[in-house]
Design a protein that fits this description.
heterodimer; A: mainly alpha; 12 helices; B: alpha/beta; Rossmann fold; Alpha-Beta Plaits; 2 domains; globular; binds adenosine-5'-triphosphate; binds magnesium ion
């Protein structure tokens, strides 16, 4: 599909979803706040933790908070815009995927935009607030390449997260039970990205840089932004990693789709 | 030119064989066993532009499965398939622009938004030019009586109202073919009538090719000129509706009314092979006979030896009977008729 058409349809679907959600106003507002409150509680907990055990491996608390902020923000963007991927299992089991396959639009786009997560807004807000605070408490030497890197990071991180969770949800094509815990588990592993990767043992480091490259959504970019060692420039691999993840997720989806047997009628 | 063409089209499903209980589930996890279900096998279809075809068969015959392969939902497990010259699965997005689809039990509408907004979303999805859209909207609104429905959400529509909207959706982008899988299921007579009228009109005026499945023989006789019967995954008849009657309906029946009580046992004894009493009352009787072996006159004469006939009525074979026979497995149709 042409990019302009994809963007146009994405915005149409998104607008439609927002409108539907706004009809259930109370729900929407509750979701929005629960998102923010949960994240802020998490940060406060971390604050307490760090005030006791100051700098881990040369990372100050506020530097860690900045990593967290960027993760919250992309998590918010992803769950706001692409919540539909969490409905794949249902779409498969109830045969509702049929509808998506009948239209001249990529089924992946239709799945991703099948729903929005209002709590994502809460995450985004939390992310922005934390980011502003953290930036005022940390020292980043803003060179032009680092400024240029920010939008690249946001897009890549969102793509990586979306691709990984989407691919994990595609397990629904193989595991056809309604209660599929696998995607949630994969999603939770993003928690590893919240801390300096070097804190973990080598197998885990390998796992979160290569297998599920969550390191590229938090730690590695932060290393680069703060001019730390090691692997500073590796942060620029993020867009490549994102493309790689997207291609894999796409392939997994179309593999799975061959197994789709359209139950019902 | 054929807009739908298949050669040896097959589809089988692998269905997990699970023993009951937790133990069965655990066993399946480690040593999954599957059962092969053949839904469609060796189906050859050749449907020309502008035709209206009924695709008929008993429950589980493979109708929906065929439609799903022609619309690109399911990947065939064997054979060739072309719809408007495209492979419906591998060229799904291009194919979907040329086809409209209605599944009786599903809807294309979004549940929570007014119907008209579903329409405009679909207009954007199918890239329907504004002018075409406006014309079609006016046309369908008039023909299907959608005016009061457009501003309600799909959730609030009755089945018949929803189905009318779904028909409009299926045709909004001027597809060359519409596939309808049981479009009249669960609808009342008036709505059925309206939908049939609509389908006939778009077929005639717009040249839209129609392929529909239905268990309602009224739909079939009214809308379609060609009949394809599938049973247990195989095509057992493909031809005109009249042709089916001429060729395969062996039975005709005569209903008589007698002036006095009919002595049933002796009447039954009087009937030779190929003539059978299928219904009997005090002074009434219906006799079915092989029309290739007996004329109506022969049969009437036989009946008159056993009853005082005052009136009789010859019942012509009808499509309903034929298809019912097929459904009940009473009629062995030859392949490739
Ligand atoms: N997803 C599936 N998994 C396993 N078997 C299936 C599946 N879909 C259909 N079948 C089987 O394939 C056969 C054909 O089913 P299909 O739905 O095509 O029948 P149909 O002719 O549409 O019947 P009906 O008139 O009841 O709608 C049936 O035996 C059915 O059980
Ligand atoms: Mg069916």
């Amino acid at each position: 599909m042409r990019l302009s058409r994809t963007v146009f349809l994405f915005s149409r679907f998104l607008a439609q979803n927002i409108k539907i959600k706004l009809e259930y106003k109370a729900d929407f507002i509750i979701m929005l706040f629960s998102g923010s409150v949960l994240q802020l509680l998490g940060v406060m907990f971390l604050g307490v933790l760090y005030s006791r055990i100051p700098p881990i491996q040369g990372w100050t608390m506020w530097e860690i908070v900045l990593i967290l902020a960027s993760i919250f923000f992309t998590e918010g963007v992803v769950s706001f815009a692409f919540e539909g991927m969490w409905r794949i299992v249902r779409l498969i089991n109830l045969g509702d995927m049929d509808r998506f396959l009948l239209r001249p639009v990529s089924p992946i786009l239709q799945i991703l935009t099948y729903d929005i997560g209002a709590h994502g807004i809460g995450n985004m807000i939390t992310g922005v607030i934390l980011c502003v605070i953290a930036l005022s408490r940390t020292e980043i030497l803003w060179t032009w390449d680092r400024i240029l890197y920010l939008p690249v990071l946001i897009v890549s991180a969102a793509a990586i997260r979306t691709a990984i969770s989407f691919a994990a949800n595609c397990s629904g094509f193989w595991l056809t039970s309604f209660y599929n815990a696998f995607p949630l588990m994969v999603h939770q592993m993003a928690d590893f990205a919240k801390y300096p990767t070097t804190l973990f043992t080598e197998p885990i480091q390998f796992f979160i840089t290569v297998v599920l490259p969550y390191a590229f959504i938090g730690y590695i970019p932060a290393v680069y932004l703060f001019h730390k060692q090691p692997w500073g420039a590796a942060a620029w691999l993020a867009p490549l990693v994102a493309v790689w993840c997207v291609l894999i997720a796409r392939a997994v989806f179309y593999r799975g789709l061959r197994r789709y047997d359209s139950p019902g009628n | 030119m054929n807009v739908i063409e298949t050669k040896g089209l097959c589809k089988s499903f692998r269905s997990p064989l699970k023993k009951p209980g937790v133990l069965g589930a655990v066993r399946h996890l480690f040593r999954p066993e599957h059962r092969e279900i053949v839904a469609v096998t060796e189906v050859d279809l050749a449907i020309a532009a502008g035709e209206s075809v009924a695709y008929v068969g008993p429950n589980g015959a493979g109708k929906s499965t065929t439609i799903k392969m022609l619309t690109g939902i399911l990947l065939p497990t064997g054979g060739e398939v072309r719809v408007n010259g495209l492979h419906p699965y591998h060229q799904r997005m291009r194919n979907s622009k040329n086809i409209g689809v209605v599944f009786g039990q599903r809807t294309q509408l979004w549940w929570d938004i007014p119907v008209i907004e579903s329409f405009t979303l679909l207009r954007d999805i199918y890239e329907v030019p504004e002018k075409t859209y406006a014309e079609n909207l006016a046309y369908f609104t008039g023909m299907l009586g959608l005016a009061e429905l457009l501003h309600q959400s799909a959730r609030r529509l009755s089945l018949g109202q929803r189905m009318r909207c779904d028909l409009a959706v299926a045709l909004m982008h001027n597809p060359a073919i519409v596939f309808l899988d049981e479009p009249t299921i669960g609808l009342d007579v008036a709505v059925k009538e309206r939908i049939r009228e609509f389908l006939k009109t778009v077929n005639r005026e717009r040249g839209v090719t129609i392929m529909l499945t239905s268990h309602d023989l009224g739909d079939i006789e009214d809308v379609c000129r060609r009949l394809i019967i599938i049973d247990a995954g195989r095509i057992i008849y493909d031809g005109s509706i009249q042709g089916l009657l001429d060729r395969y309906v062996k039975q005709r029946s005569i209903r008589i009314i007698a002036s006095a009580r009919i002595d049933q046992p002796s009447a039954a004894r009087a009937m030779p092979a190929g003539v059978e009493i299928v219904h009997a009352d005090e002074r009434e009787m219906t006799v079915e006979f092989d029309r290739f072996r007996y004329t109506a006159k022969d049969v009437l004469e036989i009946i008159m030896t056993a009853a005082e006939v005052v009136d009789f009525q010859l019942e012509e074979p009808d499509i309903e009977r034929v298809v019912k026979n097929v459904y009940e497995g009473r009629l062995e149709l030859e392949q490739g008729a």
